[in-house]
Each structure stands twice: as C-alpha cells, then as structure tokens.
Amino acid sequence: MSVDAVTVRRIAHLARIAVAEDEIDHLQGELNAMLAFVAQLEEVNVAGVEPMTSVTPMAMKKRHDVVTAGGIADDIVRNAPATDDHFFLVPKVVE
Amino acid sequence: MNAKGPSDKLIRGLTGDWEVVIGMEVHAQVASNAKLFSGASTEFGAAPNSHVSLVDAAMPGMLPVINEECVRQAIRTGLGLKAQINLRSVFDRKNYFYPDLPQGYQISQYKAPVVGEGEVVVDLDGGGSVTIGIERLHLEQDAGKSLHDRHPTMSYVDLNRSGVALMEIVSKPDLRSAEEAKAFITKLRSILRYLGTCDGDMEKGSLRADVNVSVRKPGEPLGTRCEIKNVNSIRFIGAAIEHEARRQIEIIEDGGIIEQETRLFDPGRGETRPMRSKEEAHDYRYFPDPDLLPLEFDQAYVDALAAHLPELPDARKARFVGGFGLSAYDAGVLVAERETADYFEAVAKGRDAKAAANWVINELFGRLNKEAKDIKASPVTAQQLGGLLDLIADGTISGKIAKDLFEILWTEGGDPRAIVTARGMAQVTDLGAIEKLVDEIAAQNPDKVAQARTNPKAIGWFVGQIMKSSGGKASPQAVNDILKSKLGL
Fold first, then answer.
1. Residue finishing a domain among B422, B450, B467
2. What ipTM was predicted for this assembly?
3. What single-letter DSSP state applies at residue A20?
4. Could you state, in order of their start, the residue ranges of all structural domains in chain A?
C-alpha cells in the first residue's frame, strides 16, 4: 500500500493541517516509508485469529450513572485563545 | 403535478406516478443523569460549559469510561423494538473536524452496534398498519452546540451537550409516504417514552431525525437518495419529505439526475437546500477506539432487563380492546401517551370502561385541547372523573348534569359527591316529588292533558315542563313512567 500526492493533500485537508505544495513530495515519501514498515504485518497469517483488544483478559470498566464532574467552566475555557461568558469563541464557521 | 395519485401513497408527475422511498436515522438522547463516557451532568439549559468534564473537553490524557445506565437503556430500547441484542459490540472513532467536536472524532459504533435488526408496527390514520424494519441501534456521543448569531465574525461554542449519550436508531427504507414517516416517528417516540429511555422532547432536541428520501417509478430499482439532516419536529419531517420528493421528481422529469447530497430543511420557506458542497464530502476514517474495550454482557443480563420491561403501546392497546371492549381507534388514542393511558386506567378501574373512555376522550381531551393543556396539567384528576362516573352509574346525576359537574370540577375543583350534595344537583328520583310535579302541571294545563290522551307523542311537552321546573334534576326515566301511568297511556 502506498499513497500518491492527491491522497496526501486530501489527508492533510481532512486533518485541517496546512501543507505547502513543496512539502507534498517529502511527506509522501515519509508516509510511504511508514506504510511499508507496517506492511510487514501482512506477512503474518492471522486467519481465524480474533483481534486482540487487551493484553490481559479483562472486561470493560463501567461507571455508575452519577454526576461526578462539571461546574468548572472557568477551567474548561482557560486555555482558549478567545472566550466570552464562558463560551469558546472560534472564527465563524457558517457564512 | 403535485396531486396525490390514485393510491394516495404515490405522487403524480408529468410522466406518471412516482413512489417515494424513505428511511430514517433517528437520534434519541438517552435518559441518564451523566454523560456516556464522563461524569458530567446531562441536564438541559445549564450555563455555558458548566456541564463539561475534562473528558468532554478532550483534554490531553483523559480516558472515556462508559456509563452502564446508557448501555442498559440502549438494550431496553432494543428489546422494545423487538430487536436482536448483540452481546458483544465495539466502539469506533468517527473522525471529522468541527469546532464543537473537541476530540476531533465522535465515539460511535460502526461495524458492531449494540442492537441489530428489529421492527416497529405503525398504525395508519385511515386504519390498517405497516411494519417498518429497524436496521440497527447504536450508542454514540452527541457533539457540542455552536451559536452563530451572537457575534458578526465569531461562532460561540458550548460543550454542555458534548458527550451526552445518543441512540442512533436506523430504519430500513420501508416508508413510502410523508404520512407513514410521521406515523413512524410518532410511534417510535411513544415506545421510547413508555420505556423511559428517552424523554422524546423534540423542542429540546432530545429526538431529531435525518431523513433519507429518494423517488422511483413503482417497481423500479431504488433512486439516488438525498439526506435531510436534523429535522426536529414531526410536522417538519412531513413537510421536508413532501418538498424533497417533488423537487427530485421535477429534476428527473426535466431530464436531470439526482446527486446524492446532504440537505437542510428550512421551515420558514418550507423547502430543502444543499448543506455541504461536494468537495467537503466526508471521509470519516472509522477505526476501533483504542481507549475502549469491546462492550460485552451476557444473555442473563439481557433477560433480566426484558423481564422488567413495562407494557408497551401495542400490548396495552390490545388489552384495552380485548379486556375493556374499546374500539381499536379509541384504544389507539388512549395508549399514544403513557400518561394518558395511565389516567384512563385509573378512571376505568372498577368502572364501565367504555363510559370512562368516552369521558376521557370526548370531555377531558376536548377541554385539554381547547386550553392547550397537557394531561399532566389537567385540573380534573382521574379520581375526580371516576367519582363523576360513579354518580352517573348509581343514578345520582343525569348525563346532562354530569357535564355541568365536570365544568365545576375543571374550574373550581372539589369532591364530586360533595359538590352534587351541596348544590342540589342530584336527580330527583323521589317518586312522590315527581308525582306531585306531574299533578300540578296536569291541573294547570287540562288542554295539554287532553291532547296527550289523543296523541301520546305530546307527552314530550310534559317531560320538558317537568325537567324545567325541577331544574333538570328529575330522573327522565322516572318522569316518563309516572306520566304514562297518570295520563293512562
């Protein structure tokens, strides 16, 4: 598996990462190197093997339906570049 | 065009009749105290970002821990939809970029949902019913809320809703008209409210639907569909489908083709318009969420939930028809809302169920509708209405006086029997008193007596006079009997 320049631009766009045209070539090479490395896994025969979801057999931890968090609006918006009345402010996303 | 075809499900176009094919994706907010993967509150209407935990705000290093109640509610909903419950399901990440989605992905279920195929039986207005297939139900997180009208160049983001549990319920494309679609969402809402798994409050966004619409000539393969996003009222769902079907028919009949796209319904204009341009087409890049183990439970867990499921609308309707002898229509009206059915049962308990149904449907509903009141806000309680029915049943008051009594109960309240006693509303069943009235009126009107002897129908005049002079309280049956014997008829 490998990616072409079109796919690199597309992935960058989906992730909202600005990639200059002269970076595409380099990124394409890096991504393809990674894919080639991971592709070694394809050599392993995994027919009939359940995907492993945990190193030790364990059940998913669950919480009770109790309110234990919240009420920290100051903290929640503290790192935001722009806020008003505890709202996050972002550049307008609709015209 | 635009007229309904001969089979009223079809839409007539210039080139013949068209069939509309509709499937729905309903997002129902799970009734729970805390969110799906965090301990923040789900309560509606809180101050901005006050019901947000560090998990909901997607702070680095935060890990989701599932709320067991949301799982329970999803399984119970699945059982209510007579659906397959999957003992093992998997949470995936659905990746997309939007300011009110701080994680950059929504935790959802893609390949392995918690609930599989089921069905909903939908009663139609003209009688009859259709069975609508359910494709799946899965659990997922809601996103935050963006407000675009508070600032000229900025959007305001509130994450209170971020992470609240939703059930996405996907129907099969089994719906064939706007009417069926409206009846389906109404029935689904009723089932959810009976189960108590979603409050069904569409105004608060607890229940909203994406509607997939396509058109075809009957018998032909499915057409290309358009998805109308986030329609939040039953009436709008109907209007959106009607408009979208006609739009597609016009395009095809003009020689065009339908492009698969996402559209929005504009209730002000009563039309749909495109929402996202094609180059923005989403690629969600689903993959299993590495932060969450598979969701697993055993059959015993499901069986225990099934054993404690409340009686659902279909079963209740059947019981009202079979056990109480109500018509299917009346039973359907009464069971649509759980509160209404509960009210009716409280009135009918130990009484004539048909009389109870008549009073609840005609008098009570009529009055509630007139004043735009909910049954929970009814000034007349089930106990009071039952007391009124008892007074009719034991002959204390006539049906006519009962309506006056209902009015008093509605406006002033009080105990029905005490009111009847205090205000002298009881029927006069004292034969002596009625005889006395008959004698008086006969003595004053010898001409009418003679008339009645030759023409027994003229007896009606006497009945009218006696009812009038008794203030409507004389028992009509007793009056008739006494008149007949006194006048020798």
1. B422
2. 0.87
3. -
4. 5-43
Inter-chain contact A70–B39, Cβ cutoff 8 Å? yes
**In a shared domain, residues B318 and B242:** no
- B 297-356 residues with CB < 8 A to A: none
* Amino acid letter for position B379: P
How is chain B split among helix, strand and coil, in percent rounded to 5? 40, 20, 40
pLDDT of residue B7: 54
Q: Tens of pLDDT along B59-76?
A: 999 999 999 999 999 999
Domain closes at, from B277, B302, B327: B302
**What are the tens digits of pLDDT across the range B300-345?**
999 999 999 999 999 999 999 999 999 999 999 999 999 999 999 9
Q: B295 forms bridges with which residues in the sheet?
A: B89
Top residue of B29, B36, B88, B156 to mutate, by most chain A CBs within 10 Å, is B156
From the list B49, B67, B45, the residue with the least C-alpha distance to B58 is B49
Task: Indicate the residue of B34, B52, B146 with minimum beta-carbon distance to A67.
Answer: B34
Confidence at B426, pLDDT banded by 50, 70, 90: confident
Which of the four pLDDT bands, split at 50, 70 and 90, describes residue B465? confident
Domain coverage including residue B329: 311-422
Total residue length of chain B: 489
Query: For B224-271, how does the pLDDT look when each residue is reduced to its tens digit (9 = 90+)?
Result: 999 999 899 999 999 999 999 999 999 999 999 999 888 999 988 988
Cα B408 to Cα B422: distance, rounded to the nearest angstrom = 12
Give the pLDDT confidence score for residue B5 in this predicted structure: 38
* Closest to B144 in 3D by CA, of A39, A90, A37, A52: A90
Picking from B190, B173, B189, B100, the residue whose alpha carbon sits closest to that of residue B134 is B173
Are B337 and B375 in contact by the 8 Å Cβ rule? The answer is yes
In the stretch 40-99 of chain B, residues with CB closer than 8 A to chain A read 40-41, 47-55, 57, 65-71, 95, 97-99
Q: Taking CB atoms and an 8 Å limit, are B157 and A90 in contact across chains?
A: yes
Q: Name the nearest CA neighbour of B102 among B41, B153, B38.
A: B38
Closest C-alpha to B127, from B204, B166, B174, B179: B179
| In a shared domain, residues B50 and B179 | yes
